[in-house]
Amino acid sequence: MTHEKKSISGEKLYKVFIYVVLLALAITIIVPVAWVFLASIKQNSEFYGNPWALPAGFYWQNFTDAWNAASMGSYMLNSVLVTALSLVLLLVIALPAAYCLARFHFRGRNFLNTCFMAGLFINVNYIVVPIFLMLRDGDTWLKNVMGNGFLLNNLVVLAVVYASTALPFTIYLLSGYFATLPHDFEEAAYIDGAGYGQAMIRIIFPMAQPSIITIILFNFLSFWNEYIIS
Question: When comparing pLDDT for 4 and 44, which is higher?
């Protein structure tokens, strides 16, 4: 009985500790969000007077001014377009690449896996300047050759940069999941006359939905919140 009581009391203490930690984390997230919302409905005089004071009223005109005068609508549309295009490019490239690396053995496979693994150790923020200089030099070359450059201030190019920088992690995650899937379903599809592409799209991708949804959500948040590269 004494041992059971100690175990029960230990479980209660553990649950209390977990709840305290979760509550602290919730407060650290909720307080900044609440402060931003309250600041957004204040007038400028209220905000600069005391940013921590409660608003005297609800100044909803701030949202209208931000959407129209500050062009937040156009900026939000740019973010939606870039994020969607980046995800499409990433999935079109990463899904077949991860499938080939995980399910087939060919010359150079280990080298490609090593390259993608090495890409995991590169922080994108550290290579922002080289990427910009490369695009600037390419834009200058295009202007000299074609008379017009398109590599800078281009949403499509920005989406390509996003997708390329996300390839190492995405392929690493997908190929690891693809490798755990059994080969029996593919072999049955081959016997029924399906090709490699049909087996990939109709058999493997539906079975790998959890990993695909994970990389979509992860990269969506990454692209949407990215600021330095853009």
Answer: 44
